[in-house]
Amino acid sequence: MYNATEQFAEINKVGYDSAVKLAALSLDKAERLAKLNLQAAKAALEQGVTSANAVASIKDVQQFVAVRTKLTEVGVQNALGYSRGVYQIASEAQADFSALAEQAWAMYTKNVAAWVEQAAKNAPAGSDVAVTALKSTVAATTAAFDQFSKATKQVVSFADASVRAAAANAANATKAATSTTKGRKAA
Questions:
Q1: Distance between start and end Cα atoms, the chain
Q2: CB 132 within 8 Å of CB 119
Q3: Which among 5, 6, 61, 182 is most buried, taking Cβ atoms within 10 Å?
Q4: Which of 186, 175, 184, 151 is nearest to 74 (CA)?
């Protein structure tokens, strides 16, 4: 016997389970980001103390230039490290949220398709056109989501490659600038 209420209850249960998973993922990523921020704050405090001690011990211009170069290099490296950490957390979050969305959509689509099949079996005579239209709509929606999902994955992949390249270029630029400054001191 066909019971639409039970099928809708199952669809809602799947939605509820997905919402709980989403909340857990969100809290996990927020916790990791908070830990990263605390680590960065501790590192900044330690670096501030080290920098103050280094500046206090400067005796001449050459030492000033050397300390300035070293502190700049350390600051840029710390900033790069922090941004990499944030990017890693954000990238993992995006992947986890995408996987959850795909899983939820697959379950939703499966349940709706089952509901449509049951409704079709129990539909009154002469409603073939409406059932066919409903099935077509579900199929078109599923195909559109699949295309959207593929396009999103391509954009995310491109953005990931761009961010990694930018981080590598920034690290190389810092090294080059430090080498140039050291080369000038030697001359």
A1: 91
A2: no
A3: 182
A4: 175
Task: Look at residue 181 in the predicted model and tell me its pLDDT.
Answer: 58
Supply the pLDDT for residue 82: 94
* 54-91 tens-digit pLDDT: 999 999 999 999 999 999 999 989 998 999 999 999 99
Q: Taking the C-alpha atoms of 93, 99, 105 and 110 in order, what is their torsion angle to the nearest 10 degrees?
A: -160
Q: Where are the domains positioned within the chain?
A: 4-186
141-167 pLDDT, tens digit each: 888 888 888 888 888 788 778 877 877
| Alpha carbon distance 56, 167 (integer Å) | 33
Whether the Cβ atoms of residue 69 and residue 182 lie closer than 8 Å to each other: yes
Burial (Cβ within 10 Å: 0-12, 13-18, ≥19) of residue 1: exposed
DSSP 150-175: HHHHHHHHHHHHHHHHHHHHHHHHHH
CA distance 91 to 43: 23
Amino acid symbol at 137:
T
46 pLDDT band, cuts 50/70/90, is: very high
